[in-house]
Every structure is written in structure tokens, then in C-alpha cells.
Amino acid sequence: MTQAVNAAPAAPAAGSAVPTRQEAMQQLLHGVALDLAGYAELQDLLEQQFDASVRHQRARLEQLAETISVLVDAMEARRQQRVACAVRLLGPAPSMAQVFTLLKAEPRARLEQDWARLETLVIECKRLGKRNSDLLVDQYTIMQRVLHGEDQIYEPG
């Protein structure tokens, strides 16, 4: 994620279709801050999803799936906005390392720290999502075996 630029498209400034460079940087910084909160919330939701899966709470799982979907859609929109802002600031194929260089020392250090935290949260959420997916697949497989029997039954020779 260090190379990728990761943010909901914000409305363009009044009267202009393309944000100024300053507006683009502000949108990018704001999107990173929102994603930090979003990924922390996602992490909590994934923990709740795991708990609901273990407890076979179907209604709760459906509710969590909807909440997670809305949150992930918002974060994807912010990622797309971040890419657009970075392109506005740096041209085609920008990286966050290049974005960092546009800032003065203190804001640069803060953004680098926030970006590192965001990368850590993304990795953890991916891990939790895989864990939850594996659990649900295992539960489904077991239920299919219980309801329909084994696909391959041992036959003595």
C-alpha cells in the first residue's frame, strides 16, 4: 500500500469541476484521516462478525454484512478520490512517497505516520476478513456433510 494512493469523492469546490492543488491535498489528507477511523471500525465489525459466526447468529451476520458493505463502499470511494487527488497533485502514476514530499516537515511526518497506521489496519482487516471467510466456509462445508452425507463413503473391498 505504500506505493498505492488509498480515498468518497468529495464535491468539487463551488464553481469548479477540478479541485485546486491545495483543495486536492486537503481532500487527500482528510480521506486518510477518515480511512483511519473507517478501518478501525471495520476491524471491530469483523471481530463482531467472527463472534456472530461462532454463535451461529444468522440475523446478526446479515446485519453486520450490510454494515460492512456500506463501510467498505465508502472507503473504496475515498481510495478513488485519493488517487484522483494524487494525480491532480503529481500527474499520472503517483505514489504516496511522492505525496509526502509535497508537504513541509511536520505535516509530512504526520501523514507518513498516519499512512503507516493505515497500512497496518488494512493488513489486519484483510487477515480478519480471511479468518472470518475461512470459518464461514468451514461451517458451510460441515453443514453440507451433516445434511447430505459424505461425498465419498468408504466401501469395504
**Gyration radius from CA atoms, angstroms:** 21 Å
CATH topology: Methane Monooxygenase Hydroxylase, Chain G, domain 1
Which structural class is indicated by helix and strand composition? mainly alpha
Number of DSSP helical runs: 4
Shape: elongated
Mean pLDDT: 88
The percentage helix is: over 70%
CATH class: Mainly Alpha
Could you state the order of secondary-structure elements as H and E?
A: HHHH
- Multimeric status of the protein: single chain
Short description:
By secondary structure, the protein is mostly helical.
Core attributes:
157 residues; mainly alpha; Methane Monooxygenase Hydroxylase, Chain G, domain 1; 4 helices
3D architecture notes:
With 157 residues, this protein is mainly α. It has a single domain, classed as Up-down Bundle (Methane Monooxygenase Hydroxylase, Chain G, domain 1). Helix content is 74%, strand content 0%. The chain is built from 4 helices and no strands. Helix 1 packs antiparallel against helix 2 and helix 1 packs parallel to helix 4. The protein starts with 20 loop residues before the first helix and ends in a 9-residue tail after the last helix.
Topology, pairings included?
Blueprint (H helix, E strand, L loop, with lengths): L20 H34 L3 H33 L5 H5 L4 H44 L9
Helix pairs in contact: 1-2, 1-4
